[in-house]
């Protein structure tokens, strides 16, 4: 089968940073599904792994943690899926990725793909959807309700992949007031279309901008990038006993600043459940099915930013470049081999 991978950790501008390769097609066993990949999306985790992980033993490393495809084989212990099912998922960081014609994935982290979306539109969703959903409802403990609440949620970096689905989940499933941050005009327009109640510019002091909105104190912060730059701002705007959740990897973070207001800190990493096979691992399958139904009901839309063409090394290199330079709005998707 065709795969795109690398044998040495290289700068994306170096020859062979990513290569078109051949590999043996795997077989399903246990709770695994064998999925024929139709479309994928690219995330910052792809280039982070490429930077940090140098393959050993001469075996190529295959990246990719967003996929849509068809189940072509099931393991003996599979109970929730059948051959022919159209599925979407983010996969497992410890296993071979979705930049391949076929991939093995545990059924407990797989959802039924939205019927109303194309393969590429659906591929934009799994990793960011799981991240946003877990951050909002597991870590920040926001209530799913239709009534208006007194919760005020600040989403920092709202125009990116996670922010694009998070804003929609907040507006669809909670009664919170949503303040999104964006600095470029195109980003501001994007998050406004997604339903943000207010937009502030994170390249300027945020406290004054938020105070001017007259919506009350911020109760929850979802920090999706550059957390280390904004910690003081978060402490300033958060209500006492408020909650801060992040997904990025700051080199250092002085959490003592949170003490005076009794603020709580939460870290979201969507691969935790699959890496450690937690007791609630199947919650990822359920939340993907939930969001799939919301999409088919017209309540949430795909977060595709740009379709980069077929799944091959050249197009994946372009995707890595765009993400590394911070130029992406929404998700980057590729489709077909």
CATH architecture of the largest domain: Alpha-Beta Complex
Domain tally: 2
Summarize the amount of helix as a percent range.
25-40%
Low-confidence parts? none
* Quaternary form: single chain
Spatial shape: globular
CATH H level, superfamily name of the largest domain: Medium-chain alcohol dehydrogenases, catalytic domain
Structure description:
- The chain is an alpha/beta fold.
- The chain has two domains: 2-125 and 281-335, Quinone Oxidoreductase, Chain A, domain 1, CATH 3.90.180.10; 128-267, Rossmann fold (3-Layer(aba) Sandwich).
- Helices cover 30% and strands 25% of the residues.
- It has ten helices and 16 strands.
- It has helices at residues 44-52, 119-123, 126-139, 161-173, 185-194, 206-213, 227-237, 272-276, 283-296, 313-324, and strands at 2-6, 19-22, 32-42, 61-62, 67-74, 86-89, 102-106, 110-112, 152-156, 177-181, 198-200, 218-223, 238-246, 264-267, 304-307, 331-335.
- The strands form three sheets. Strands 3, 5, 6, 7, 8, 15 and 16 form a seven-stranded mixed β-sheet that branches.
- Helix 5 links the parallel strand 10 (177-181) and strand 11.
- Helix 3 (126-139) crosses helix 4 (161-173), helix 3 (126-139) crosses helix 9 (283-296) and helix 6 packs across helix 7.
- The mean pLDDT is 95.
């Amino acid at each position: 089968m065709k795969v795109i991978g690398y044998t040495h950790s290289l700068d994306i501008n170096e020859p062979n940073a990513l290569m078109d390769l051949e590999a043996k097609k795997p077989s399903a066993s246990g709770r695994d599904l064998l999925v024929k990949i139709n479309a994928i999306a690219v995330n910052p985790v792809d280039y982070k792994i490429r930077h940090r992980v140098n393959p050993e033993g001469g075996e190529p490393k295959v990246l990719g943690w967003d996929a849509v495809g068809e189940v072509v084989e099931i393991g003996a212990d599979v109970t929730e899926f059948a051959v022919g099912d159209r599925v979407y998922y983010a996969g497992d960081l410890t296993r071979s990725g979705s930049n391949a014609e076929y991939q093995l994935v545990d059924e407990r982290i797989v959802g039924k793909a939205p019927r109303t979306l194309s393969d590429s539109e659906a591929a934009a969703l799994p990793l960011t959807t799981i991240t946003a959903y877990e951050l909002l409802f597991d870590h920040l403990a926001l209530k799913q309700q239709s009534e208006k609440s007194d919760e005020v949620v600040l989403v920092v970096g709202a125009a990116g992949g996670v922010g694009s689905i998070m804003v929609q989940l907040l507006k669809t499933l909670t009664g919170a007031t949503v303040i999104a941050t964006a600095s470029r005009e195109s980003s501001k327009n994007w998050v406004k279309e997604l339903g943000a109640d207010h937009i502030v510019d994170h390249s300027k002091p945020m406290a004054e901008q938020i105070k001017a909105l007259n919506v009350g104190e911020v109760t929850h912060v979802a920090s999706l990038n550059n957390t280390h730059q904004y910690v003081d701002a978060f402490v300033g705007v958060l209500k006492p006993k408020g909650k801060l959740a992040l997904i990025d990897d700051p080199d250092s973070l002085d959490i003592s600043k949170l003490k005076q207001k009794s603020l709580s800190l939460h870290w979201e990493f969507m691969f935790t459940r699959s890496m450690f096979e937690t007791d609630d691992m199947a919650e990822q399958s359920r939340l993907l099915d939930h969001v799939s139904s919301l999409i088919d009901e017209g309540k949430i839309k795909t977060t595709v930013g740009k379709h980069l063409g077929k799944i091959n090394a050249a197009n994946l290199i372009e995707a890595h470049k765009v993400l590394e330079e911070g130029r992406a709005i929404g998700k980057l998707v590729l489709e077909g081999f």
